[in-house]
Specification:
heterodimer, A: about 230 residues, alpha+beta, 7-stranded antiparallel sheet, 6 helices, elongated, B: about 280 residues, alpha/beta, 9-stranded mixed sheet, two-stranded antiparallel sheet, 7 helices
Chain lengths: ~230, ~280
């Protein structure tokens, strides 16, 4: 388990999207009268699921916490795209120990629904811990969770796109950190543009065209300002 | 070859030909579960489970004769290779336990497909399904899906190949207003849930695309680490139908996927007219 560095400042779009996303998890926590609700986003490059929004007043420190995307219940929900309700999770001492160490809370009941990207595969998971026994019925719980996950998809997609665009701009301007994650996001954004224009297969790995576009963009955006300072 | 025979289109029957009999003889006029699968244990059939792996040490697990995984390289090329890493989620163990409980004589092969990674689930799904169809399993159980249209176009010929080569594909339906594959392909047996507590009860769903409904709410299952869980989801209903398909193929070898699907339809509680009391908690076998 690792903790991500604080996120980029964010554009107005991504701030709005974050507000909507927080609203979704707050609603989820309320309607299920649950201990907490959270949205996890897949960081594909790192193969990790990262807490993106958490509905619980004392658990905001979880935002940014990451764990492997290829294990656990959330990992399988992401992989399969299937909604799942699991009871008695806390009875497994292994699970309890690992979860407690990572999050400080061991649930008994867990609900998880996949979140689909706009035109991509599954990009995240909506989780609800320890929902109450209401009169909703388990089928209703699954349907309700799926609807909330569908709502979360739109804001999560906006956040992802805003981050890609910001990373691309920052790199192109030559300022800010150009870490592996930044480069990945920048390339992803540019690649999408190039492929859209060229009508190429969006599933293929990043193309040389994208790298060239990134270089050109970098020259265009950084060139005039440097010349301006020099004269 | 005489008369019109020489001019017959492929796969047609000529006027002097004997129409090929059904394997195992004609079906009874009142085809029911007694004839279709009761008394069978799945012996002689092979089920492939594309899931999160299996915990072989769990006391409820049996019949698993092979464990594999899908590995995807940097270029997105996948391959199936032997694997002994168990179950890193718990879900696969649950599904294997359900299949073994209903069809204890069937051989289960597990293919671990739990690799999110940079390429997403598409290449993993395609690699695993291609392998399973090429291996000509009797039944393939899958609860994973992709939303990528370009992956769907790779899956479509695989699904057709399975249908014509004799592999029954059973996949979990989504409870989502999104389109994903391959469960929405018409030749795939797609499964949603019913909320009755009966592992042998299944309904035909007259409202597509989900084809059948099986026990998927409050299911007691085996879980990785030797434990048990109470779970809900279409992915737990699916292995019930996979097991039934294995039982049918065990009792009636040589049936095509079309015939297996037809038998499941004819024996579904709401089609056979045997829908039990809604409050029934019992086991109807």
């Amino acid at each position: 388990v690792t903790t991500y560095a604080a996120d980029e400042a964010g554009s107005a779009d991504s701030v709005t999207a974050r507000t909507i996303l927080q609203g979704t998890v707050d609603i989820a926590r309320t309607v299920f009268a649950a201990h907490s609700a959270s949205v996890l986003l897949l960081d594909a490059a790192a193969d990790q699921l990262v807490f993106e929004a958490v509905a619980h007043p004392d658990e905001q420190h979880l935002v940014g916490l990451a764990f492997p995307a290829s294990s656990g219940i959330a990992g399988w929900v992401l992989q399969s795209g299937q909604t799942m309700l699991v009871d008695d999770v806390g009875s497994d001492p292994n699970f309890a120990r690992q979860t407690a160490r990572a999050t400080g809370y061991v649930p008994e009941r867990l609900m998880a629904a996949p979140i689909g990207g706009l035109d991509d595969d599954w990009i995240g998971v909506l989780e609800v811990l320890d929902r109450s026994d209401g009169y909703r019925g388990e089928m209703t719980d699954v349907a309700l969770l799926a609807l909330l996950a569908h709502q979360a998809a739109a804001s999560l997609q906006l956040i992802v796109e805003a981050r890609q665009a910001e990373a691309a701009l920052r790199m192109a301007r030559g300022g800010g950190p150009a870490g592996a994650a930044d480069s990945g996001r920048a390339l992803a954004a540019l690649d999408a543009i190039v492929r859209h224009v060229a009508g190429d297969d969006p599933a293929a790995p990043p193309s040389d065209d994208s790298l060239q576009l990134l270089e050109s963009l970098s020259r265009v955006l950084s060139g005039p300002s440097r010349e301006g300072r020099n004269t | 070859v005489s008369g019109t025979q020489g001019f017959l289109p492929a796969w047609s029957v000529g006027d002097t030909d004997t129409v090929r009999p059904l394997p195992g003889g004609p079906w009874p006029p009142n085809l029911d579960a007694d004839w279709a699968w009761k008394g069978a244990d799945g012996a002689g059939t092979r089920v492939c489970l594309l899931d999160s792996g299996v915990d072989l040490t769990h006391p409820a697990i049996g019949g698993v004769t092979g464990t594999f995984r899908v590995a995807v390289d940097y270029d997105g090329d996948g391959r199936v290779e032997p694997d002994d890493s168990g179950d890193s989620s718990g879900h696969g163990t649950a599904c294997a336990g359900i299949i073994h409980a209903l069809a204890p004589g069937t051989e289960i092969t597990s293919v671990k497909v739990l690799t999110a990674g940079v390429h997403g689930s598409g290449p993993v799904l395609e690699t695993a399904l291609r392998w399973a169809v090429d291996q000509r399993f009797d039944v393939v159980n899958l609860s994973l899906s992709t939303r990528k249209a370009e992956v769907a176009s790779l899956l479509r010929p695989l699904v057709d190949q399975a249908w014509f080569d004799g592999t029954v594909l059973v996949a979990s339906a989504h409870n989502f207003p999104v389109l994903s594959y391959p469960w929405t392909f018409s030749s795939v047996i797609s499964v949603a849930s019913h909320a009755r507590r009966d592992p042998w009860l299944y309904f035909y769903n007259p409202e597509p695309p989900a084809l059948f409904q099986a026990h998927g709410v409050g299911v007691e299952v085996a879980w990785a680490g030797g434990t048990t869980r109470r779970v809900t989801g279409n992915s737990f209903a699916t292995p019930h139908v996979s097991a039934l398909a294995a039982l049918i193929r065990s009792k009636h070898p040589g049936l095509t996927p079309f015939q297996v699907t037809t038998i499941l339809h004819l024996t579904a509680a709401n089609v056979a007219g045997a829908a039990p009391d809604p409050d029934s908690e019992g086991v109807s076998r």
